[in-house]
Amino acid sequence: MPDQTPPRPAGLDALPDDPADAVPLVELRIPRAADPATAGVLDEVAAERVRQNERWGEQNHRDGTGDRRWRDAANHVRSEVDDEARAGRTTWNGVLREELFEALAESDPARLRAELVQVAAVAVAWVEAIDRRTEPAAAADRP
Which domain holds residue 116? Predict the structure, then answer.
């Protein structure tokens, strides 16, 4: 059977096959020394974006956000997460769901973008928390 792997988009053909061999493609705007854990996770996110672009190319879908059902869902999730927090049962699942549903409720592109950045930041923070509680085993699995 012929190889089903799509060709790499132009400009990406010189990238190594193993992400561990890659030089970071994104110059982060945060000082690397400020939080090496964050920088490391963001490098992983950048590498994943390269893999997604290699596989699917540039994606330009409709947002599909901002209608009443998403606003109602965001209010419901926010209430659930607030109740969990008051009871001392805050979870990463709840924090991420709240941020995600706040994003889904937005129709304004600037606000949607800001909410999606918050979703990404919470996801990065969650990965950092997983790494902290699983070190040193997690470090051995990362580039």
Answer: 64-143
Q: Does a structural domain hold residue 115?
A: yes
Asked if residue 34 belongs to a domain, the reply is: no
Residues 6+ apart with CB under 8 A from 68: none
Rounded to 5 degrees, what are φ and ψ at 72? -65, -45
The one-digit pLDDT tens for each residue of the chain (143 residues) are: 555 544 544 444 545 555 555 555 555 565 554 688 899 999 999 999 999 999 999 999 999 999 999 999 999 999 999 999 999 999 999 999 999 999 999 999 999 999 999 999 999 999 999 999 998 765 666 66
